[in-house]
Design brief:
Layout: H1 2-29, H2 31-42, H3 53-72, H4 76-97, H5 106-118, H6 129-132
Helix pairs in contact: 1-2, 1-3, 1-5, 2-3, 3-4, 4-5
Amino acid sequence: MNQSIALLVIRLITGILFFAQAYEKIFKVKLKNVVEVFGVQFGQKQTTKLPFSWGVYVSSYAELIGGALLILGLFRSVALYILAGDLLFVGLAFSMIKPMWDMQFYFPRIIFVAALLLLPQEWDRWCLDMLIR
């Protein structure tokens, strides 16, 4: 029972972290402004033509959808693969901007996603996936 509750807490925290970050970028800050900030950091003036600008959009929606799926406990493996790919992209993008970047927000997410990928799926009893199985 303790394993199920521990996994639920980790899954919910991870989902909330990704969902809240994406919600902020998409609906409050607006993705156009996020692309602009990254363009300035890359030293570009025309941010719409940056090769990574599409990545900001894809990454943000991956975080929103993946976070929501984790919160619901729906398609857990798919959500984790999406978020793991997102973390790879984000790590590459930030490393291109500044090789020695601050990982204080990135590091907990990578640990949570890795933990959820490693923990047995059978322990995740408090999720919508259990209703489907």
